[in-house]
UniProtKB/TrEMBL annotation, chains A, B:
Keywords: Membrane, Transmembrane, Transmembrane helix. It comes from the Bacteria. This is ADP-ribose pyrophosphatase YjhB, NUDIX family. The chain crosses the membrane at residues 12-33. Residues 11-143 form the Nudix hydrolase domain. Gene3D superfamilies: Nucleoside Triphosphate Pyrophosphohydrolase, Winged helix-like DNA-binding domain superfamily/Winged helix DNA-binding domain. The lineage of its organism: Bacteria, Pseudomonadati, Bacteroidota, Flavobacteriia, Flavobacteriales. The keyword Transmembrane applies. It comes from Flagellimonas pacifica. InterPro entries: NUDIX_hydrolase-like_dom_sf, NUDIX_hydrolase_dom, WH-like_DNA-bd_sf, WH_DNA-bd_sf, WHD_NrtR.
DNA sequence: ATAGTAAATGTAAATATTACATTTATTTTA
DNA sequence: TAAAATAAATGTAATATTTACATTTACTAT
């Protein structure tokens, strides 16, 4: 029931749009889809939805993410609200940008295809509808900022990964090369990686040891009151 | 004109609520106001408004902030969207939390009073309507996080301030004492403070030199690709 | 002239970062 | 089965930053 005093307000459409990052074959990719219905039929768009009466914006974005990728329990954070008056010529409609990091190896590729969705390397993105291109560049900036201060890179790698893989990811995110000895030393010094007794031999004869992100340990450290900036000299952007 | 394909969506009320921080008499304060009309007449609330058809959420929050404090050009950032289904029993209404840092010495005190608004020290806050208490604690957390990595403390101090004042502010934000010699050294080493030829004698016979935040220099540094974490060992939270 | 007060300053020890080259483990090939 | 090939793994010395800690300075009030 809507109380009288709300009658002064103007209702608007509220949507979520997901900026979904993945790391595959050494490059950062974004999941976009080709619209099959109006508006913007046939054009590329972020994956989104109206927020339904029975869900929050966060629930809405997790719902569509699951619909398209089959994935639950995804790293997803609010980016910002896009509410410029004329952003959508069809109606007053605000959109909440939600950026997500997923493990490409874990998602349901057939489901993605069946929805007309496709992974594009960030530098080969097609033009997107409305302000979705802006959402992507904002999200990329946010990803870079957050990756400086928090260990979120792990969200983009398989559960088990090698140090060289991790380094490659950070080099792609920050567009910068790191010294492999110093990179390894620094990451291991954070004490948030569990070394496994297993090697990945896909990229060398010697094989590289696999590691897992130790999120319990990370939470402990955070609880004690520390945050972990990955690189001290933050000249990574 | 609303196109047909939007008819599937459900419209909702969209509001902004401002979490307004100030630093006064050595304590962090929040600006809240006593509602004079329904809903929640007589109860304390954040300062907010519906987002109007002709403005973005950012414009809406700057508008109400100006209405109440007389201030323009305020540091204000989106905190997050509060869209839980039952957050407002009167109607489906989502709210965009916007947190702001203002210089208490620059705001229009009479205007604030005339609107029934009042500054409360953070630890003496009255109960607030709806989820506004949660907004405040979220905003405080965000303030602390951001103050670790970015020089935003200056937004809460007068344009001209002393190093001891700056230190006191950071001690309040982080609930932690700093060594005055190291604090001064660290802050000056960032090279974003302009020393003035002027002293503030309000708190000592000797007087303390006044400084200004040099935002041009800070922008230059950022442009070159550096961010500036204020404290290396981020054990400040 | 002296006492009182907060501001300002310096340094040595500990820690973290950087720059840089060789050895190791394994597979493939000769 | 020895040798070649390849990426992974490791160590160290030089530099920079952070930390811990006590005295002097500038000014006002008595």
């Amino acid at each position: 029931m809507v109380k009288d005093w709300y009658k002064g307000g103007d209702k608007v459409y509220v949507a979520v749009d997901c900026i979904i990052f993945g790391f595959d074959a050494g490059v950062l990719k974004l999941l976009v889809f080709k619209r099959r219905v109006a508006p913007f039929e046939g054009r590329w768009s972020l994956i989104g939805s109206f927020v339904r009466p029975d869900e929050s914006s966060s629930e809405a974005s997790h719902r569509v993410l699951k619909e398209i990728t089959g994935l639950d329990n995804i790293y997803m954070k609010e980016l910002r609200v896009y509410s410029e008056v004329d952003r959508d010529p069809g109606a007053r409609c605000i959109s909440i940008g939600q950026y997500a990091l997923i493990r490409v190896d874990e998602h349901d590729k057939e489901l993605v295809e069946s929805h007309g969705a496709k992974w594009y390397p960030l530098n080969e993105l097609p033009n997107l509808v409305l302000d979705h291109g802006k959402m992507v560049s904002d999200a990329l900036e946010r990803l870079r900022t957050n990756a400086q201060f928090y260990p979120i890179g792990f969200e983009l790698l398989p559960q088990k990964f090698t140090i060289p893989q991790l380094q490659q990811l950070y080099e792609v995110i920050f567009q910068k090369q790191f010294d492999s000895r110093n990179f390894r030393k620094k990451l291991l010094s954070l004490e948030i990686l569990k070394k496994l007794d297993e090697k990945d031999k896909s990229s060398s004869k010697k094989g590289a040891f696999l590691f897992q992100f130790d999120s319990d340990k990370y939470k402990q450290i955070r609880k004690k009151g520390f945050s972990i900036p990955l690189f001290k000299n933050q000249d990574v952007l």
